[in-house]
Amino acid sequence: MTTLPYDVSRCSGRFDLRTDGEWCPERDTCQRYLAWSKLDRNADVTDYQRISVTMGWPDCGMKIPAEPAA
User: Alpha-carbon distance 43 to 23, whole Å?
Assistant: First the structure.
């Protein structure tokens, strides 16, 4: 699985920043979250100055379904 282009925002998969806060239940099947949490690291993305990262929210409507693992 490859990461997303730099002009596509990533998602933190969190609904808030509290330590005990809620996580998006669909994060592990969302390409935006996987890019932020794993795929960018594997692609040697180290600088997020050009890439936006958003907070998750219930029923966001921005989910990009993740490609099935090969």
Answer: 25
The DSSP string of the chain is: -----TTS-EE--BS--STT--B-TTGGGBHHHHIIIIIHHHTT----TTS-EE---TT-S---BPPPP-
pLDDT in tens, 13-61: 999 988 888 999 999 999 999 999 999 988 988 788 889 999 999 999 9
Work out the end-to-end distance of the chain between its first and last CA atoms, rounded to an integer number of angstroms. 8
pTM of the complete model: 0.85
Give CA–CA dist 53/37, Å, rounded: 11
